[in-house]
Structure prediction request, 115 residues.
Amino acid sequence: MKVYAYKNCSSCQKALRYLEGRTYELLPIVEQPPTVEELRRMAGYLGGVRKLFNTSGVQYRELGIAGRNLSDEEALELLASNGKLVKRPFLLTSDGGAVGFRPEVWDQVIGKGAL
Prediction:
């Protein structure tokens, strides 16, 4: 299980507290964004590439992403090159994933009470 997080993100901090006692790999999302393949997998779980964007982020607004007509491949390349554009925390397991932190969704993805 991989968790991409940003240390100053309150949702990421809540997610990491939720994961206490579980084994996972913690990766810094800004310095080491998810790969194109990881993003593609997550987009499949979520039902679309657009759901991967951190739409409340400064860079999302500065780059005018909402108004751009990006292909899925262009969006994946952009996300993989700039971790600040990726919605966080970003949880990826061998057979599922979630972006943002909602305990009920994470329970489903990793298995309630799974250690």
